[in-house]
Amino acid sequence: MTILEIGVGGYDDLRRGGESLRMWKRYFPRATIYGLDIIDKTTLSEPRLTVLQGDQSSPADLERVIRATGPLDIIIDDGSHVSAHVITAFNTLFPVLRDGGVYVVEDLQTSYWPHFGGQTSAYDDTSTSMGFLKNMVDGLNFEEIGGRDPARTDASIKGMHFYHNMAFIEKAENRDGGAPSWLSRI
Predict the structure, then answer these.
(1) Residues 6 or more apart from 168 whose CB is under 8 A from it?
(2) Is 39 contained in some domain?
């Protein structure tokens, strides 16, 4: 199993952070754990736990991370919490998440805070983290929606689970065929 957590913690103190990475390492004793932070926290690396430096808002940095990690089983976004960064990270990393994998987005309350790129009143604005995720919910039923062009993630998201300030996206084939053709859709 390969796990990536965006956001190592400890802020600007190069010696602090990585507590959740070490927790994942203990919880998954056979996993390889990677952390990504915009601050250089590479000194926190240890056996089975590698910290990479990079910016989650940079597709080039995320591609470099993908080259280092290979396919991933679990991705946890606990990074900047800026909506544009969350969306860039998802769009870049979700394609390399293995089938059966889980993508987690934490601290979604920032989707409602303007200084994080959020909106206080436009709850379906797809430029916010929550609006982006809510837009994908319809994709779970894309085969039943007449006249809708499928989004690129529709056929690969099997489930989405929302909790207070957190979302879990399950990657797996989503092609159940939809409702039977004899059932009226009008």
Answers:
(1) 102, 103, 104, 159, 160, 161, 162
(2) yes
**181 falls within a domain:** no
Helical segments of the chain, H only: 19-27, 59-69, 83-93, 129-137
178 inside domain: no
pLDDT along the chain (186 residues), means of 10: 96 86 98 97 97 98 98 97 97 98 97 88 89 93 82 94 98 83 67
Domain that residue 35 falls in: 2-171
How far, CA to CA in Å, does 135 sit from each of 50, 70, 99, 158, 171? 34, 28, 21, 14, 16
Total number of domains in the chain? 1
Query: Given 81, 85, 161, 164, which residue is catalytic?
Result: 81
Spatial CB neighbours of 101, under 8 Å, sequence gap ≥ 6: 72, 73, 74, 75, 170, 171
Question: Is residue 95 assigned to a domain?
Answer: yes
> Domain with 86 in it: what CATH number?
3.40.50.150
d(CA 108, CA 164): 8
| E strand intervals along 87-156 | 97-106
Active site residue 164: no
pTM of model > 0.85: yes
